[in-house]
Specification:
The chain has 197 residues and is an alpha+beta fold. The protein has one domain. A 7-stranded antiparallel sheet has the order 1-2-3-4-7-6-5. 27% of the residues are buried.
Protein backbone atom coordinates (compact mmCIF):
# COMPACT_ATOMS: atom_id res chain seq x y z
CA UNK A 1 0.00 0.00 0.00
CA UNK A 2 2.84 2.39 0.85
CA UNK A 3 4.47 1.65 -2.50
CA UNK A 4 1.23 2.38 -4.34
CA UNK A 5 0.77 5.64 -2.45
CA UNK A 6 4.38 6.69 -3.15
CA UNK A 7 4.01 5.79 -6.83
CA UNK A 8 0.79 7.83 -7.00
CA UNK A 9 2.48 10.89 -5.48
CA UNK A 10 5.41 10.63 -7.92
CA UNK A 11 3.08 10.26 -10.91
CA UNK A 12 0.95 13.16 -9.71
CA UNK A 13 4.02 15.35 -9.29
CA UNK A 14 5.27 14.37 -12.76
CA UNK A 15 1.90 15.16 -14.32
CA UNK A 16 1.72 18.55 -12.60
CA UNK A 17 5.22 19.58 -13.56
CA UNK A 18 5.06 22.14 -16.33
CA UNK A 19 7.76 23.54 -18.47
CA UNK A 20 8.95 26.97 -17.47
CA UNK A 21 7.33 29.57 -19.67
CA UNK A 22 9.69 30.71 -22.37
CA UNK A 23 10.50 34.38 -22.35
CA UNK A 24 10.73 36.07 -25.69
CA UNK A 25 12.88 39.14 -25.99
CA UNK A 26 10.74 42.25 -25.83
CA UNK A 27 10.66 44.60 -28.75
CA UNK A 28 10.43 47.43 -26.22
CA UNK A 29 13.92 46.76 -24.87
CA UNK A 30 15.81 49.95 -24.18
CA UNK A 31 18.84 50.12 -26.41
CA UNK A 32 21.52 52.15 -24.64
CA UNK A 33 22.79 55.18 -26.48
CA UNK A 34 26.30 54.74 -27.81
CA UNK A 35 28.23 57.98 -28.13
CA UNK A 36 29.52 58.61 -31.63
CA UNK A 37 32.06 61.06 -32.94
CA UNK A 38 30.26 63.82 -34.82
CA UNK A 39 31.83 66.00 -37.47
CA UNK A 40 30.89 69.68 -37.45
CA UNK A 41 28.65 69.10 -40.46
CA UNK A 42 26.82 66.10 -38.95
CA UNK A 43 23.20 66.35 -37.82
CA UNK A 44 22.40 66.21 -34.10
CA UNK A 45 22.80 62.96 -32.18
CA UNK A 46 19.70 60.82 -32.53
CA UNK A 47 18.48 59.30 -29.29
CA UNK A 48 15.02 58.74 -27.92
CA UNK A 49 13.51 59.81 -24.62
CA UNK A 50 14.47 56.64 -22.73
CA UNK A 51 18.05 56.73 -24.01
CA UNK A 52 18.42 60.33 -22.86
CA UNK A 53 16.90 59.38 -19.50
CA UNK A 54 19.51 56.63 -19.12
CA UNK A 55 22.36 59.02 -19.91
CA UNK A 56 21.05 61.63 -17.45
CA UNK A 57 20.50 59.16 -14.61
CA UNK A 58 23.94 57.61 -15.12
CA UNK A 59 25.49 61.10 -15.14
CA UNK A 60 23.81 61.98 -11.81
CA UNK A 61 23.52 58.71 -9.85
CA UNK A 62 23.04 60.53 -6.53
CA UNK A 63 19.95 62.42 -7.67
CA UNK A 64 16.42 61.08 -7.27
CA UNK A 65 14.40 60.51 -10.42
CA UNK A 66 10.64 60.76 -10.77
CA UNK A 67 8.21 60.56 -13.69
CA UNK A 68 4.84 62.20 -14.13
CA UNK A 69 1.73 60.02 -14.49
CA UNK A 70 1.86 59.70 -18.29
CA UNK A 71 5.67 59.35 -18.46
CA UNK A 72 6.17 62.44 -20.59
CA UNK A 73 8.51 64.06 -18.10
CA UNK A 74 11.47 62.85 -16.08
CA UNK A 75 12.66 65.09 -13.28
CA UNK A 76 15.83 64.69 -11.26
CA UNK A 77 16.10 66.53 -7.98
CA UNK A 78 18.76 66.47 -5.31
CA UNK A 79 18.13 63.83 -2.63
CA UNK A 80 17.37 66.36 0.12
CA UNK A 81 14.37 67.76 -1.81
CA UNK A 82 11.09 65.79 -1.76
CA UNK A 83 10.32 64.38 -5.22
CA UNK A 84 6.99 66.22 -5.45
CA UNK A 85 8.54 69.62 -4.69
CA UNK A 86 7.74 72.66 -6.77
CA UNK A 87 10.09 75.54 -7.34
CA UNK A 88 9.61 78.56 -5.07
CA UNK A 89 11.26 81.88 -5.79
CA UNK A 90 14.34 82.79 -3.79
CA UNK A 91 14.86 79.20 -2.59
CA UNK A 92 17.77 76.92 -3.45
CA UNK A 93 16.86 74.65 -6.34
CA UNK A 94 18.50 71.89 -8.36
CA UNK A 95 16.47 70.28 -11.12
CA UNK A 96 17.08 68.43 -14.37
CA UNK A 97 14.04 67.79 -16.52
CA UNK A 98 13.52 65.91 -19.78
CA UNK A 99 10.20 66.11 -21.59
CA UNK A 100 8.58 64.40 -24.55
CA UNK A 101 5.29 64.75 -26.37
CA UNK A 102 2.71 62.16 -25.36
CA UNK A 103 2.50 60.78 -28.90
CA UNK A 104 6.26 60.45 -29.38
CA UNK A 105 9.14 58.34 -28.14
CA UNK A 106 11.54 61.22 -28.80
CA UNK A 107 12.57 63.76 -26.22
CA UNK A 108 11.49 67.34 -26.85
CA UNK A 109 13.44 69.36 -24.27
CA UNK A 110 16.32 68.96 -21.84
CA UNK A 111 16.42 71.54 -19.05
CA UNK A 112 18.76 72.18 -16.12
CA UNK A 113 17.68 74.73 -13.48
CA UNK A 114 19.94 75.60 -10.57
CA UNK A 115 19.67 78.28 -7.95
CA UNK A 116 22.24 78.55 -5.17
CA UNK A 117 21.29 81.48 -2.94
CA UNK A 118 24.89 81.76 -1.78
CA UNK A 119 26.19 82.79 -5.20
CA UNK A 120 24.99 83.90 -8.61
CA UNK A 121 28.35 82.85 -10.06
CA UNK A 122 28.11 79.39 -8.49
CA UNK A 123 24.57 78.99 -9.83
CA UNK A 124 25.79 79.74 -13.36
CA UNK A 125 28.78 77.44 -13.05
CA UNK A 126 26.72 74.56 -11.63
CA UNK A 127 23.91 74.87 -14.19
CA UNK A 128 26.19 75.07 -17.20
CA UNK A 129 28.46 72.27 -15.90
CA UNK A 130 25.48 69.98 -15.26
CA UNK A 131 24.37 70.56 -18.84
CA UNK A 132 27.85 69.76 -20.13
CA UNK A 133 28.18 66.67 -17.89
CA UNK A 134 25.20 65.07 -19.62
CA UNK A 135 25.90 66.15 -23.16
CA UNK A 136 29.59 65.23 -23.23
CA UNK A 137 28.27 61.65 -23.03
CA UNK A 138 26.09 62.20 -26.10
CA UNK A 139 27.63 64.71 -28.52
CA UNK A 140 31.10 66.14 -27.96
CA UNK A 141 30.18 69.33 -29.88
CA UNK A 142 27.60 70.45 -27.32
CA UNK A 143 29.87 71.39 -24.36
CA UNK A 144 31.82 73.74 -26.64
CA UNK A 145 28.63 75.61 -27.55
CA UNK A 146 27.62 75.81 -23.87
CA UNK A 147 31.06 77.22 -23.04
CA UNK A 148 30.69 79.81 -25.80
CA UNK A 149 27.27 80.97 -24.58
CA UNK A 150 28.38 80.96 -20.92
CA UNK A 151 31.36 83.10 -21.89
CA UNK A 152 29.04 85.60 -23.59
CA UNK A 153 26.82 85.74 -20.50
CA UNK A 154 29.86 86.36 -18.27
CA UNK A 155 31.18 89.03 -20.65
CA UNK A 156 27.87 90.89 -20.74
CA UNK A 157 27.59 90.62 -16.96
CA UNK A 158 31.00 92.24 -16.49
CA UNK A 159 29.96 95.10 -18.76
CA UNK A 160 26.82 95.64 -16.65
CA UNK A 161 24.66 94.65 -19.58
CA UNK A 162 21.28 93.08 -18.98
CA UNK A 163 21.84 90.60 -21.80
CA UNK A 164 22.33 87.56 -19.58
CA UNK A 165 20.32 85.20 -21.75
CA UNK A 166 21.84 83.67 -24.83
CA UNK A 167 20.45 81.33 -27.43
CA UNK A 168 21.83 79.90 -30.62
CA UNK A 169 21.02 77.21 -33.16
CA UNK A 170 23.98 74.99 -33.94
CA UNK A 171 24.51 71.39 -35.09
CA UNK A 172 20.74 70.91 -35.28
CA UNK A 173 20.15 71.86 -31.63
CA UNK A 174 18.54 74.94 -30.13
CA UNK A 175 20.54 76.09 -27.09
CA UNK A 176 19.20 78.54 -24.52
CA UNK A 177 21.22 79.63 -21.49
CA UNK A 178 19.47 82.08 -19.19
CA UNK A 179 20.76 83.80 -16.06
CA UNK A 180 18.64 86.92 -16.47
CA UNK A 181 16.11 86.34 -13.69
CA UNK A 182 18.41 85.33 -10.84
CA UNK A 183 17.92 88.66 -9.03
CA UNK A 184 14.16 88.08 -9.27
CA UNK A 185 14.53 84.80 -7.36
CA UNK A 186 14.67 82.35 -10.26
CA UNK A 187 17.27 79.72 -11.17
CA UNK A 188 19.91 79.85 -13.86
CA UNK A 189 18.91 77.54 -16.70
CA UNK A 190 20.43 75.63 -19.57
CA UNK A 191 18.00 74.25 -22.14
CA UNK A 192 18.66 72.11 -25.21
CA UNK A 193 16.20 70.84 -27.78
CA UNK A 194 16.27 69.69 -31.39
CA UNK A 195 15.87 72.55 -33.83
CA UNK A 196 12.79 71.36 -35.69
CA UNK A 197 12.49 74.38 -37.94
Amino acid sequence: MKKLLLLSVILLAACNKQDEPSVEPSKATIIPYVKKHHAKSDPPAQLDFLQLVQVVISSFPNAQASYNSNATELRLLSKHIPSDSKFKTYENWYSIKITRNIDSENWSNFLVEIRDNQSYEQSKTDAFNACKDVWRNIDHRVPTVINELASRINKYGKNSSSATAQHIIRYGYLFNLDASHFNDGYPVSCSISYNNK
